[in-house]
From TrEMBL:
This is Xanthine permease. Coiled coil: none annotated. It is found in: Membrane. The keyword Membrane applies. Keywords: Membrane, Transmembrane, Transmembrane helix. GO terms for cellular component: membrane. It is a multi-pass membrane protein. The chain crosses the membrane at residues 32-50, 56-75, 87-106, 118-139, 146-164, 176-193, 205-226, 338-361, 367-385, 397-415, 446-465. It comes from Haloplanus rubicundus. One of its GO terms (molecular function) is transmembrane transporter activity. It comes from the Archaea. InterPro entries: NCS2. Pfam families: Xan_ur_permease (PF00860).
Amino acid sequence: MSDREDRAGFVSYGIDDKPPLGTSVLLGVQHYLTMVGANVAVPLILAGALGMPESVIPRFVGTFFVVSGIATLAQTTFGNRYPIVQGAPFSMLAPALAVIGVVQASNPTGPAWEAALLQLQGAIVVAAVVEVAVGYFGLLGRLRTFISPVIIAPTIALIGLALFNAPQVTSATGNWWLLGLTLGLIVLFSQYLGDASRAFQLFPVLLGVVVAWVIAAVLSVAGVYAPGTSGYVDLASVAAAPAVMPIYPLQWGVPRVETAYVIGMLAGVAASMLESFGDYHAVARLSGIGAPSEERINHGIGMEGLMNVFAGLMGTGGSTSYSENIGAIGLTGVASRYVVQIGAAVMLVVGFVGYFGQLIATIPDPIVGGLYVAMFGQIVAVGLSNLEYVDLDSSRNVFVVGIALFTGLAIPAYMGNVGSAAAFREGMRGVAVLGPVLGARAVADTVYVIGSTGMAVGGLVAFVLDNTIEGTREERGLVEWEQATEDDAAFTSAFDRFLRD
């Protein structure tokens, strides 16, 4: 029996199946619960980096869920039509943080968070237009023969590795036990008690965060944690939150565009496309169907680009396919597109509820830090898992992956030691030959933003090396990926039937 037949036998609900509405609602919410942590982590990281006022954070978080719901409905209906949840991307987080740092350094006075957010929005919108072109002009589909697991593995792994020093992790030393408790609970539920209960298998992250939050809330009410201290939960702010939040395009203002930030964000968009490329293959394999055709890949990437334009206009950090959701398919066997659409509709409504956003904002930094350690570690593992297709006895493959990972960590660390784009620009003025070029503000800012983005550095290094060092297609893992690829006509005819119906 083939691997595809094995997978098809495991699937409880196939892509085109429609379970009863009540069951679909529960299964759909379950799909979204697997990525709630990640979809909350990104806005909280951005809010912290921006210095966003606490009163604004609930609306900011709610906007991410509204965008996630709309993007998922668009992707599952008109895009690649896979049961993949769309949400806030970690792949675009590192360049976003670099952009925010540069903008805030050049705006020492005034509402720095608003200026930085508008520049971030503009960078995402313009970079996303490029993604739309890459998708609907079929560029990624044509380039797929040049993109192997050897490239995808270090690129995705660096998304998690680059975020190990997130403020919520490094600043939680004042309450390290709460961070450790959160992480310990997630490990306990997911690894040790997973076989004891279906709930532990499905919701280890959610349960870990909820239990830690309840403990922190009890200690806050008891007076152990005073207002303003690490671990304090402000329950009164939840009751005072508005019932409904106004969320709409351009709610923070008109996006601003600067070339250096756009180029830096293109690195994140490129990493997002590579991540989604791998996700499409993973969800097809777990759903028991053929690997994605060129047409399906192009439709998916094109729609992700459109939804990134929408996300930029709404004022979030972008949108991409979620690996956590794919993991849920492998765990539960629920691969129904209809189920994911139901879950997306629920999240879309929840995003407008003020109580929900404010409740998320009360999660203390140490708890968020414990969540990050688990989530970022999972992202690293998802990236490295792509190496299962690669011949790891090949010295060229080991070399490419190793160099990509090391440069993806070393160069951003160097940029961090430099301190800022302005300092980098001044330091480059005296460099022989390249000094006049690298000393220019636009060039220096561009190099600084890209150099500060681990997955951009590692991905570029891996792409160049993997396509220039001699190696067979079997060695690079391309043959196994393409063995079960669906025919382009199959996706096109199915999509046409959907549009007619």
